[in-house]
Amino acid sequence: MSDAVDPTGIPTVHESPAPTPQLPSVTPLGTHPPADTGSGGSQSAWQHLGDELLAWLKTVASAALYATLIITFVFQVARVEGRSMAPTLEDHDRLIINKFAYRIDEPHLGDIVMLYYPSDPSQSFVKRLIAGEGDQVRIVDGRVYRNGVLLDDSFVLPNYRSHDDWGPEVVPEGYYFVMGDHRNASSDSRHWRYVPKKYVVGKVQMRWWPPRHVRIF
Fold it and tell me: What pLDDT digit, counting tens, does each position of 3-12 carry?
C-alpha cells in the first residue's frame, strides 16, 4: 500500500475587504423628488457603481493571482490517502507542503516529502527520504543500513516492521531511495526503485488536521 496525497485545496489569501457597491438612490413613493432631476445625477451614480464593481473585480483578481503564486511556488495543501506512513501520518490527515524549502536547500535524509510516483507522475505519494545519490542501501530482516550504518527507525512500531531483505545497492546519481514508515504495508523504493530528484515536490511541513494532532515536521 502506498500513501497517495491529494494535492487539492488552495491556500487562502486575505485581502482588504472590497467596498460595498453603492446603488443609485431612489425616491420613496409619496415624496416629492428634488426640483432638478437632470440626467447628470443618474449618470454619476451609475459611473460610481461601475467604479466600485471594477475595484471589487481587481481585488478578486489580485487575490486569485496571489493564491496561484503561493500554491505554485511556496505552499500546497494535500490530503493523505492510505496508511503507508502510519503512525507518523494517518489516512485523511491534511498536510501543508513546503515547496519553497527545496528551492533554496537540498532535501535532508529523514525528511518526509511529497513526491510524484515514478511509474505514474500523475499520482503523488508521501514517503520518508532514506538515502541519496551515492549511498549504499541494504536491508536485512527489515532493518535498514545506509553505507553500512544501521539507521534509527524508532518511529516504526513493532507490529509495522517488515522482515524482508534487499540489496545492497548504490543509489544512482540524481535519485533518492524512499520508504514508508509502515514498513510491512508500504509500496516504496523496495518495489518501484528510485525516485528522480526532480520528482520531489516539497517537504511535509505541517499536519494541520485533525486539530488534536497538529504537528510541525
Answer: 676 655 433 3
Asked if the bond preceding 24 is cis, omega within 30° of 0, the reply is no
Output 49-52 pairs: Cβ under 8 A, ≥24 positions apart: 49/21, 49/22, 49/23, 49/24, 52/19, 52/20, 52/21, 52/22
Helix residue ranges per DSSP H, 77-212: 101-104, 189-192
Alpha helices in 74-138 (DSSP H): 101-104
Residue 209 phi, psi (nearest 5):
-150, 135
Euclidean distance between CA atoms 60 and 89, whole angstroms? 35
Q: Which residues are catalytic?
A: 84, 127
Catalogue all structural domains in the chain, each as residue range(s) with its CATH number.
4-8+77-216 (2.10.109.10)
* pTM value surpassing 0.85: no
Q: What is the pLDDT of residues 163-185, one digit of tens each?
A: 999 999 999 999 999 999 999 99
